[in-house]
Amino acid sequence: MLEEDYSPQRALLRVSAGYGSYRVFITEILSTTARKYRYYVLDGDFVVAGFDNAPDARALHQKYGAAWKRHVGEAIPHLHLEDKAVLELTDEMTVDKFLTWLVENILPEE
Hints:
Elements: E1 2-6, E2 10-19, E3 22-31, E4 35-43, E5 46-52, H1 57-64, E6 78-81, E7 86-89, H2 95-105
Antiparallel strand pairs: 1-2, 2-3, 3-4, 4-5, 5-6, 6-7
């Protein structure tokens, strides 16, 4: 399923698809000031992997340590694993990189 929504100030792309027994969700919001994204792979409701650049408190703690409060609201590229129990800092992710990662790391179970 593909959903698009756009105006001169922003564009929204939202895609949901199946990959074997997994569900894949791609969301990008582009505005004149920022780019936000979420790329998730789910097994049922279990988050297998989720890349995003939201201002996540755990990501802020990992990146800035005790000074994390000075960066509240900052977008931090990161990866959620094991139903969000594990968080890793990442480089910026794009749709192309995510699709390559998906094919290389997730086997489409039947």
